[in-house]
User: Which sequence fits this backbone?
């Protein structure tokens, strides 16, 4: 019998005597194949049913499947294909059932609502809440509800009652990231009650602790430091100062506030270290119990559940004396999550959390060997490797979700990752002890307040806002993920074939990005329709015009431009029945001319607002009303209407609410690109 090492390859002496044995390119991990199949099935279902992502993203699954089957023998090929296809079908089927369940339930209408506050964000005299355990007119309703309430005295764990008009959240369509996030989080209903009543507190002790933490932190700390502290402990970034929150995003360290694997891993590791000597292998039980309680306090966020499951698998392997495999553990955690809740795949948190860990497990080895020659301290090298590896794998998600990639992300993590225990443990100890000893809260929170104040001061002085933005990866996103497969040491390839495969994939990646962003001699329209407003960007040769409706806020417009365009605008068109609202936003978006259908007589900067038809380059814009216009270019006529989902003028092409995100039209006719 031929012996193999842990990675499945033979030792050098054995290999010399068995050169005829052809080893598989990738080890056969059944759980990894099952998880890949599940992910592929959900991805394809989302691409077909929701237009979520570009179908070329499936190439990463195809490439991994090819190498799993390559040189593996007939039985291996059949086993891999069988497991992969079975779980792909299961993923698609479970996703369809989740979509049907999400679309079910009571229709929109007036209801008497009761629910438990699971999430609360206070600011500007209002509180945005997420309610669970819902009843509508006394009947239990599945899913959750978001509601905007007047006042700032609502806390997590409160039970609220109110009467209001309840709207239904639509299923995702056209790549709408907001709808995808609502679908992933089970948010089926939306309401904005004029008044509400607090009827009591939930019996869920963990949610009550969450609300109590908010009160004690804001009572004993400065407001900005309290928001920072609460976000660090619970993952709720919406209570933070907006400028600081944006700085952490552009700095690439927002994961610190996601109650991520670092938080759970640190907590689990410290408890294990403290109890290992007195409890032996049984220390895993209190360590997991405390980690699970912390996850419950944070309402079981995706990243915390992923970390808890992986800690559980690692603890179980240690307890029973079995070998622990990181990729299998990650795959099993993903499989368990998606079998219970397949819609979690559509959340950004799931993709970033699992993608970051996959990047570390796949790319950390090659990057570590590359840094050995630099003679960097081990701690610095480890932080660089983990930051770069995670960003490599999550780059498509970051670009398509946030519209930019942090230039300083990897370097910032050099400071943040080693500093997290210094920030987290004194704060956690002081905050939770303050709940037990409220009279000593000022003393207990003094040290963490001082440390966090220094961090806030650092971010006000340092500028970490330099990002790569203004372009989209398009079809290149899937190719980029596929490129990580041959770059990984998990794939056994000789140097020359590995380099050739990387070069080919790199070429396809560059081509995909170029085709996605190049305009050429024709014109192009990008449309983003969300529940927070609609934007359309029209680009010709060297020209760009942004069209917005009355609901599009400044943040929505800025986010849209980050994703699609990095150049200067020639004009902004306020295309809405609510012209004043759209003009107000347009004046902040662009320093140049704002175009409207009719003259604006408000006391705004009227010299920048012009009305009537206009031309930009070869593109002719004609208003058909306050909220509808036509665009003529390249021999085509396009109707743009941001208040209706269907065209009414009989133009060659229609762009508006509910349509797909990307459209192109060229000289010879309309080409729709999905």
Assistant:
């Amino acid at each position: 019998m031929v012996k193999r090492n842990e990675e499945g390859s033979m030792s050098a002496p054995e290999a010399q005597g068995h050169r005829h044995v052809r080893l598989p390119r990738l080890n056969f991990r059944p759980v990894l194949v099952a998880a890949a199949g599940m992910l592929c099935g959900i991805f394809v279902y989302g691409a077909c049913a929701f237009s979520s992502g570009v179908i070329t993203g499936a190439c990463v699954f195809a490439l991994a499947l090819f190498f799993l089957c390559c040189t593996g023998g007939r039985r291996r090929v059949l086993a891999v294909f069988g497991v992969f296809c079975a779980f792909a079908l299961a993923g698609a089927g479970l996703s369809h059932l989740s979509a049907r369940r999400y679309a079910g339930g009571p229709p929109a209408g007036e209801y008497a609502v009761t629910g438990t506050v699971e999430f609360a964000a206070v600011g500007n005299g209002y509180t945005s809440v997420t309610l669970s355990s819902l009843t509508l007119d006394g009947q239990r309703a599945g899913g959750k509800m978001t509601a905007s309430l007047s006042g700032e005295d609502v806390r997590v764990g409160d039970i609220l009652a109110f009467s209001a008009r309840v709207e239904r959240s639509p299923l995702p369509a056209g790549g709408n990231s907001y709808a995808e996030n609502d679908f992933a989080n089970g948010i089926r209903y939306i309401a904005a009650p004029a008044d509400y009543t607090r009827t009591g507190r939930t019996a869920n002790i963990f949610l009550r602790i969450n609300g109590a933490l908010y009160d004690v932190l804001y009572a004993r700390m400065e407001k900005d430091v309290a928001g920072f502290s609460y976000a660090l402990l619970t993952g709720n970034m919406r209570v933070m100062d907006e400028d600081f929150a944006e700085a952490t995003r552009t700095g690439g360290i927002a994961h610190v506030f996601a109650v991520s694997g670092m938080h759970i891993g640190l907590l689990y590791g410290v408890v294990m270290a403290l109890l290992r000597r007195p409890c032996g292998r049984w220390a895993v039980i209190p360590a997991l119990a405390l980690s699970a309680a912390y996850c419950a306090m944070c309402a079981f966020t995706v990243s915390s559940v992923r970390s808890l499951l992986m800690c559980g698998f690692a603890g179980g392997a240690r307890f029973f004396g079995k070998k622990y495999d990181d990729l299998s553990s990650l795959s099993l955690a993903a499989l368990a999550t998606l079998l219970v809740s397949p819609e979690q795949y559509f959340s950004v948190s799931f993709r970033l959390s699992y993608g970051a860990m996959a990047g570390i497990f796949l790319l950390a080895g090659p990057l570590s060997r590359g840094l050995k020659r630099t003679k960097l301290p081990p701690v610095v090298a480890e932080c660089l490797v983990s930051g770069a590896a995670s960003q490599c794998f999550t780059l498509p998600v970051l670009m398509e979700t946030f519209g930019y990639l942090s230039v300083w992300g990897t370097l910032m993590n050099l400071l943040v990752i080693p500093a997290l225990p210094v920030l987290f443990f004194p704060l956690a100890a002081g905050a939770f002890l303050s709940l037990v000893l409220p009279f000593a809260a000022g003393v207990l929170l003094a040290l963490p307040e001082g440390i966090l104040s220094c961090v806030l001061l650092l971010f006000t002085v340092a500028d970490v806002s330099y990002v790569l933005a203004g372009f989209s990866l398009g079809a290149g996103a899937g190719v980029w993920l596929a490129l990580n497969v041959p770059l990984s040491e998990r794939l056994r390839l000789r140097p020359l074939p590995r380099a050739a495969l990387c070069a080919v994939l790199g070429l396809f990646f560059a081509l995909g990005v170029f085709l996605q962003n190049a305009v050429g001699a024709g014109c192009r329209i990008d449309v983003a329709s969300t529940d927070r407003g609609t934007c359309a960007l029209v680009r010709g040769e060297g020209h760009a015009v942004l069209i917005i409706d009355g609901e599009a806020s400044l943040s929505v417009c800025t986010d849209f431009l980050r994703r699609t365009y990095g150049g200067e605008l020639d004009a902004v068109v306020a295309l809405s029945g609510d012209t004043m609202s759209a003009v107000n936003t347009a004046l902040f978006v662009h320093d140049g001319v704002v175009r409207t259908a009719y003259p604006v007589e408000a006391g705004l900067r009227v010299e920048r607002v012009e009305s009537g038809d206009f031309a930009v380059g070869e593109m002719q814009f004609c208003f058909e009303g306050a909220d509808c216009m036509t665009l003529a270019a390249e021999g085509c006529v396009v109707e743009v209407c941001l208040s209706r989902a269907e065209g009414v003028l009989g133009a060659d092409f229609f762009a508006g609410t509910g349509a797909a995100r990307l459209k192109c039209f060229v000289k010879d006719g309309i080409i729709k690109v999905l």
